[in-house]
């Protein structure tokens, strides 16, 4: 049976590899605006030894490690990230599944059937399949979460300083992969505080060592950002969603993951969010009273709780994309473990064999029902994006590949733009992706001084995409009210304009 621990996990890892192959088989790796930021910084790392984006400023909105990671692979392989991205994600998703299986083989108690069901649920989760179909930093961050759980559990079992330093090192790297990795730091810090086996003096020293190592790289990254750009994480706007709204969005993601239809979200999303978070709090409290903090299951519960609360609270104070499956993908595996592994303990405590078999059968049927439900969601996405030949939504899907404007940008004569005259756009990453040209994003409406500064520019070019309406940016109608724009090239999907104050009548 020991061999089966590895062979069955390898089989699921191979299935995971193939799943990402399927979802990237038509148009390659999915490319979003974030992907282009990562890619341009990686290309600059290879070409110039820095992590500047396409507009020649240091990457600030995102931490530096993921583009550095892509840059190192690109340098070694002499291949562009967009070209190797699909294969990289196939390998990373397979590694994630193998690591998950390795961890579940060490649950107490462990069960092969439970592991198989859980691995199937992980592979088929729509959120994870989406994340690993795109060139996104979550692909690396989710793997770092599991590696941290493995190493930090080793520390909890031994209280050896070397394992504490190793775990803190993983957390430090994770913090410059995703800023949300402060939740990994919080997971370890909370468990250190709750650990009753550590003498007070040793606990204090370990917390200090752990904290200093964890935040070291993040502090260096943020300090660099502040010195070179004047902001630590780029310009941030205050949130426009309340705590209750964010709880609802949080719950709606889990409603989606368990197969509910959107018309059911209004009824179930908010209660489900509360049940999930309160349940994790109750489970952590229960484990603390039983002095059972060193299990993988408890580590998973602790991380899922802290990560979930962080996303809801940070969304309440700072504006970024609405809570969605991509944002919550890092907590899916820990949450799945937290809400299913208790079944193994329950079965262990049932003395009557027939009752135990009946309960096990009910549990298996519930898991199979859930797996079937998410499989149908994945099948629909596969039919829409691969069978119907549309591609992963983003800059490599059919809408963009068949766009006359995008085709024009790919072959544009850069000499048509006067030297040293700024180029602006409502999608500067799209301009770079299709033409290779640097441009600047038109200002956000919220930042009034930036808007005023933009309107004072005496000459500029404007590349505008009609189908990318962003309500947070000043739009083309706003600009035309203030500036008389000259059309250089017009398309159905957008246009290229020029403004020159000297030619205004």
TrEMBL record:
Signal peptide: none annotated. The chain crosses the membrane at residues 9-29, 57-77, 84-104, 116-135, 140-157, 163-194, 206-227, 268-286, 298-317, 329-347, 359-377. It comes from the Bacteria. It is a multi-pass membrane protein. InterPro entries: LipidA_mod_glycosyltrf_83. It is found in: Cell membrane. The keyword Cell wall biogenesis/degradation does not apply. Keywords: Cell membrane, Glycosyltransferase, Membrane, Transferase, Transmembrane, Transmembrane helix. PANTHER family: MANNOSYLTRANSFERASE YKCB-RELATED, MEMBRANE PROTEIN. This is Glycosyltransferase RgtA/B/C/D-like domain-containing protein. The lineage of its organism: Bacteria, Pseudomonadati, Bacteroidota, Sphingobacteriia, Sphingobacteriales.
